[in-house]
């Protein structure tokens, strides 16, 4: 069960929407954990064991597994050579990020079958693992745009593997996934709310929120519609005007200063929006409730 193992948050790279991390001398136990992202994990110069969900199997040189989000997994490995250290290369990417890519790019929609199959975990062939290694070994020497192109290349390579096998006899319990997704969403909502609370007086945009949460603008838009029942712009406007109403009642600050303090630098626009929302002008509101 997800709630009995550790959530390992994937550190984000600045200026990138996915992550690749190569770990050398990765010997010993990597404790059971899970991510909210897909993980493509490649072992090199390695001998040991690994587990995904209820599956346990051998990990060796060029073992390449694709693990679905929220699936517990662990490794216990040693180097298989005195001359070469054990290496683990992990590539993480988010389900919603790839879903948005697939929605907008017809060419990527063939990946749907791969992602569905990944719910049971996939063990890819040694030949595919070697092809994947040749791609990821060059990532450090290319630009972010070229790295993104390399990720799409990787996804294409693994989707074409005819020798790939599934690791689990059944997919994870959907109820557990639903619980994990609810926890993940709650964390995002909390982070989103804190960002707005700290920056509402600035000219923040949907893009700023998406960057802060390391997701797409369309995902943020859906989050507002699902959880706040209104758009981001409507939510931000109400947040600012409600804070302005508090300042009108609790302080003696000039109305123009209050407007500026909540993010409106045009008092006429502030007055119009305030009256539209509260059915009275800021001055009338102060007189009535102050």
Describe this structure in words.
- The structure is a single chain.
- With 290 residues, the chain is α+β, with helices and mostly antiparallel strands.
- The protein folds into three domains: 2-166, Jelly Rolls (Sandwich), CATH 2.60.120.10; 174-229; 234-289, Arc Repressor Mutant, subunit A (Orthogonal Bundle).
- 47% of the residues lie in helices and 20% in strands.
- Strands 2-9-4-7-10-11 form a six-stranded antiparallel sheet. A five-stranded mixed sheet has the order 1-3-8-5-6, with no helix packed on it.
- The longest helix is centred in the middle third of the chain and has 26 residues, at 174-199.
- It is elongated and about 80 Å long.
- InterPro entries: Homeodomain-like_sf (IPR009057), HTH_AraC (IPR018060).
- It comes from Vibrio inusitatus NBRC 102082.
- GO terms for molecular function: DNA-binding transcription factor activity; sequence-specific DNA binding.
